[in-house]
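Note to self: the last two entries modelled the partners one at a time, which told us nothing about the interface. This time every component goes in together.
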Amino acid sequence: MNRKFECFIGCDKEYECADIVLFGAPFDGTTSYRPGTRFAGKAIRSESNGIETYSPYQGKDLSEFPIFDGGDLELPFGNTKRVLSEIEKYTDRILTDNKLPVMIGGEHLVTLGAVRAAIKKYPGLHIIQFDAHADLRDDFLGEKFSHATVMRRIWDISGDKKIYQFGIRSGDGYEFEFAKSHTIMHKFSLEGLKNIDAGLNSEPVYFSLDLDVLDPSVLPGTGTPEAGGIQFCELLQAVLSLKKFNIIGCDINELSPGYDQSGVSTAVACKILRELLIVLGTKVNTNRPRTWGRTESSHPPQ
Amino acid sequence: MNRKFECFIGCDKEYECADIVLFGAPFDGTTSYRPGTRFAGKAIRSESNGIETYSPYQGKDLSEFPIFDGGDLELPFGNTKRVLSEIEKYTDRILTDNKLPVMIGGEHLVTLGAVRAAIKKYPGLHIIQFDAHADLRDDFLGEKFSHATVMRRIWDISGDKKIYQFGIRSGDGYEFEFAKSHTIMHKFSLEGLKNIDAGLNSEPVYFSLDLDVLDPSVLPGTGTPEAGGIQFCELLQAVLSLKKFNIIGCDINELSPGYDQSGVSTAVACKILRELLIVLGTKVNTNRPRTWGRTESSHPPQ
Amino acid sequence: MNRKFECFIGCDKEYECADIVLFGAPFDGTTSYRPGTRFAGKAIRSESNGIETYSPYQGKDLSEFPIFDGGDLELPFGNTKRVLSEIEKYTDRILTDNKLPVMIGGEHLVTLGAVRAAIKKYPGLHIIQFDAHADLRDDFLGEKFSHATVMRRIWDISGDKKIYQFGIRSGDGYEFEFAKSHTIMHKFSLEGLKNIDAGLNSEPVYFSLDLDVLDPSVLPGTGTPEAGGIQFCELLQAVLSLKKFNIIGCDINELSPGYDQSGVSTAVACKILRELLIVLGTKVNTNRPRTWGRTESSHPPQ
Amino acid sequence: MNRKFECFIGCDKEYECADIVLFGAPFDGTTSYRPGTRFAGKAIRSESNGIETYSPYQGKDLSEFPIFDGGDLELPFGNTKRVLSEIEKYTDRILTDNKLPVMIGGEHLVTLGAVRAAIKKYPGLHIIQFDAHADLRDDFLGEKFSHATVMRRIWDISGDKKIYQFGIRSGDGYEFEFAKSHTIMHKFSLEGLKNIDAGLNSEPVYFSLDLDVLDPSVLPGTGTPEAGGIQFCELLQAVLSLKKFNIIGCDINELSPGYDQSGVSTAVACKILRELLIVLGTKVNTNRPRTWGRTESSHPPQ
Amino acid sequence: MNRKFECFIGCDKEYECADIVLFGAPFDGTTSYRPGTRFAGKAIRSESNGIETYSPYQGKDLSEFPIFDGGDLELPFGNTKRVLSEIEKYTDRILTDNKLPVMIGGEHLVTLGAVRAAIKKYPGLHIIQFDAHADLRDDFLGEKFSHATVMRRIWDISGDKKIYQFGIRSGDGYEFEFAKSHTIMHKFSLEGLKNIDAGLNSEPVYFSLDLDVLDPSVLPGTGTPEAGGIQFCELLQAVLSLKKFNIIGCDINELSPGYDQSGVSTAVACKILRELLIVLGTKVNTNRPRTWGRTESSHPPQ
Amino acid sequence: MNRKFECFIGCDKEYECADIVLFGAPFDGTTSYRPGTRFAGKAIRSESNGIETYSPYQGKDLSEFPIFDGGDLELPFGNTKRVLSEIEKYTDRILTDNKLPVMIGGEHLVTLGAVRAAIKKYPGLHIIQFDAHADLRDDFLGEKFSHATVMRRIWDISGDKKIYQFGIRSGDGYEFEFAKSHTIMHKFSLEGLKNIDAGLNSEPVYFSLDLDVLDPSVLPGTGTPEAGGIQFCELLQAVLSLKKFNIIGCDINELSPGYDQSGVSTAVACKILRELLIVLGTKVNTNRPRTWGRTESSHPPQ
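The predicted structure of the combined assembly is written out below.
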């Protein structure tokens, strides 16, 4: 008899033949308000059985793409630096193996670990961030590393005008001031995304999706819900439009499943992740045509 | 002293003088993912006290219509065939008595029982389905009777192009393929409803409302929430527009009240049911003018 | 060592130098359906730490305005008349001290206490009400004082055509009939607000925000959720537009935090309250320019 | 077709032939801390379907006793005096018809209404109270009528040494002082109940069961949970031992079902109520032998 | 990179070298009241990470025993007969391979499938049942196969006086009557277990643990909570005492994790399961000494 | 008008005249399983209004003792070392001012900060720990500082046989082995406490109460519930018996209020804390008689 293994629905291919590697970074150690994002990876995998692998939006089936789900990393709670370094190391390996990393947070700070790895390989890296919060503080209660400072830390290594921020509707006055000179911020909506393809579409881009960009009515299960966000269909359209960019890595973060006992927030995250993976899988497939077959063991878990 | 009896608000008339008969089919035995729709009828009746009988949308009061609420059927858990047969039998009696059946599910499979009865009386029956899911699988884990196959089973008896599907945004690739030749499917929205009156409005129509057609932000309390659905006002407008059809029976299903502890999902279901009943009551009243009076016992329960 | 004190984020100024006085009226004694609004003040203060003091919509920071938060009144449960009289007395004092009262309910009936005080000072007072429910019943189960009769009781003292009602989508037939002759009712939306500035903008206005005007998907945490409401952004725009009126007092009521375990409803209330306070603070500042300084003790609580 | 009616399981006899009349008093208007007991009657009736009518402890079946369930009274929220007067009136009628009233609260204050009626018929009435709280305050925040003063108000009309208090483990110092001279208080447990039969067993006794006498682990669903209470089996034994007393009326109060989402608290209340009703039914049957038959309509609701 | 696999903590050995095979039977299709036991297997595996593998009660570590966790069976919802047959088939194979089956329900009816397989191999099989409910009805709402009839169906094949029932505190009068002649029933507690070793300890015994035998304060997460149950330590002692019997198969059922949002019920089930597995593992080890080694892949999942 | 301040009920005295200083350490950064203890201090203060200040167990009133509640410390999430150092610093100051520190956790690791300060002042310090878990690991996932290693870290500074552990029922084999030589461990219950007074009662003792020593039925609101714990009354008796020791500091930790939506866990913590404070207050009063008066500002918050 075989053992059951855990994966996001349809992402049951072997590492070796995978183009895309999904993994979880269950860390919420700097969360200032309500922790719980550490459970997101587990919840997303488990609840993914409630959706289909087929996307009627893209007319494609997720199970047709070579994706490996490596499960959640085992991270040392209470040691922020080691956490970031383990994420960096894991992402590094995926990139070195010429695969595309897709990380499930965890709080937003986990993005820093992945971007550090990405920027080593792609020094001119651009970052597209969908988020309710600017995350541009220089420190939070004296700490440099926090989910409230993550974009500032990324700016430290990416430099000016490399971070494209969309949907931002919360921050202190200094963050909005900082954004004027140092990032490219589109407040309140994702509208501006349409107009940035020209410059970016040949550049390597890291995409970071903080799910609290969604209106809390759509995704109540997050640590710092911020009213006035975007609807699901706006996010879906934006994610579908990402195919015009050269995404080399991405993450989806800040789902805190325990705050939404209906399970809807997790279902929303699953559906967006499916669409994102199909977008990425299609692109990868087109860019790097190569042969691969479903392996013997590539059947969905029973 | 009188006993209190249970009914949906305002639906307190005697069976004999009723034009419309409301009843519950508390079955969730084939639900693949999260059961609980069995509690919908009870919850809807109980929470209906939180809304008014008057509709400001239609300028009419539900309590003015002769509607009998027969409560929930007592169904044998664990025996799907007997369940369907009891629903069929009960619907049959209502139709034989020239009344209009309105069933509260239960999972979507209960529709099959009611449609079997309806199609006996109206052999050319059309079905209008609002739903997030196509429900067109031929079997589910080897079972022919399931809430994931219900529309396929109805197609078995209705034949091609009799099922009008709206709002569909989930299914496997084969279901969408099947729909192309055998049903009339409008994906993602209810928009298409506007354009189908010409052909249908003299034909007998059964209307089946799977509440998960609503966006999960509006109705989180359902077994398989599917992001990207319609808003309440779109559903309300669509329900109001049903007056142009010759509805001979209908149901409202897949509310699973336990998954939404705020009670909002049940409140949404109550309001839609009130509007639907007033639409039907008005139509019936117009079509078959006849005398009836509020009976002695028709006061609302204290 | 100093004691910690409780206040809405940024509202930490001393009473003496404050232009605006925030206070809670934790009463839900006439709530017919689901009680719990008594906990709103406490929840709003506590959860306000989850939002920023800075508004990116208005480009201003709440902490710059001289606002005192007096905490919740201590009200005698079970004695509706004494409750109303204590609210009136407290509001009276604030108005006498030439400050602007902002009350956090409690159920909607608390508005009556505040309006009684306001109408003594401003006899021709107009009232702007955002609400899902007309609240125009003459009595409820024989009781004259209830959250279902509050606007009728206010009409008793304000007279005809002084109450502007927006967003109303629930009531019995008599209430809608009554509104035709006695109030100015805009059903379903806040649209009509745009067109009433001409007549009202020099008159004293009391603004009462029943949060159930919001769609229950946005604010599930309320006692009588009523589907078909407005979205957050519509409410935000309307609140921002209030700056054209001469608001002399206001309240925000019917949040029942316990019905929304995600905390989102409270977060929504916090954000709207922040925006409302900045609107009021800006106006007061403009109208009555005067010197004030942050007092020694005006630092935010640690 | 017949309408479904609502009753506690097995209590489906007609009023006329009933020995015992069950009814609900859904009032929580003076609850100082967490309201919600108004929903107890409804919850108890609904969840009673989860238990059997047969008691293996007493070897008898509840459905064999002539008990009528009159449902919940309709009480005017916000008017404490009218509420008490309506409870008194209803209890009065039951007693006048020589039936035994069994009331489901609501908060503990409802007991005052019932005792007022009982003491008119039985002037030397004794009261047995199981409770975590002494309820002997003279006023609460200035109000004489409150669930924290109810036993003091009953003492006003019963006089000294008529109230037997068991399980008390909370109160202020003055209440415990008051009890020394005016009531018979057994702190912390129900142990003392064994020793009081001699004096009381021919006297008329009203029994009031505040469910918070139970440990909160057994019954978390109550407004003011008080650690250190009794276990279920101790309460069960005590209730079974009540058969030695001449109980002429009783109530079970302070269940607040919404605070226990597992439903266990309500299930506990249902089981105790079943046992209590069988104790009372057996006693009544023995004391007043008379003919009665199950009426035509006495079948349990489907 | 390796895939993560799912198992109960410490039960990560290969099937081939395992003495004990753990598997889930996620079926709740005949549950009359509140479904949800289908989620028990998944919850138990997931939450088992919250406990240790080491038992301070037995001084042994679960990870030292050769146990394979086969995950949940995939069962066809809505078809009770096929469900029972698949459980029987799977149990059959385990027994044929001379391993000891340990099943995680699901509702109690799943026991019938496993006992059918066991009784084929061990025709004189005895059954020890810990349960709050007798489960001896002949039918439930006309259905022969139900979690309320399971012990009656087992009696059909085991014959008289083979079923030892402990802790029973609910049933109708006929069930208790039936038990007198046909089973060996110990009401209310597990006390009697001490006295039955003499006769049974060389006979093959199947042990079925319905977790609702526990008091609902200990395990609120079950479909039909029944007050007056046993405490955790009584159950633990009873489970430890099972080592005197010749257990050839067992199950643990009726955990419904969704009804206990604290997660405590699942934690209780995990701990009892750990102790039970160590008892069984120790016995098997003693009875059938043989060599086995931890396989290469026997490390706990990361 | 005065501002409301936040404190545990009855602990409203000024710092200067206080004998005891209560404060919160809202840290849960190393929690391996389910975070949330950071909210304990806030919840305990807020819910303390649901209990009385008077103890019927001790016949004393908490409000009579000079206790200052300093609120929650502001701790830097994500930096475990700084957190411990801030706790140490704050405790240090309290001890230096000759007051007794009582800390509300937070996770159990916070005890290390307080003990570091205490051991500086009292080098031969003994520690009494009530806990379900041994907390004696040397590291957890490679981290030395964790709530699973806290007692090991304390042992690093206290040396052998200074830590008295009671109620321990979980740990790995190595921890139990370690305890044999290095601590004094009483497994499963608090029984042994009776016998240790002789040696300890003149020595300085730090008391650390991990609330998960309670059975999860009593306190479900904790991160790692461990079945088989002690009942409330056992804990209460043990706390009352602490008066024989020379307690110089203490803490109460691991309440995670969000996991128990009934609020019962917090109510249990409040009651134990009240009793503990009265025990400590009585002792301090006796040991160090001195004059103090209720200050002007010592009225309870309104």
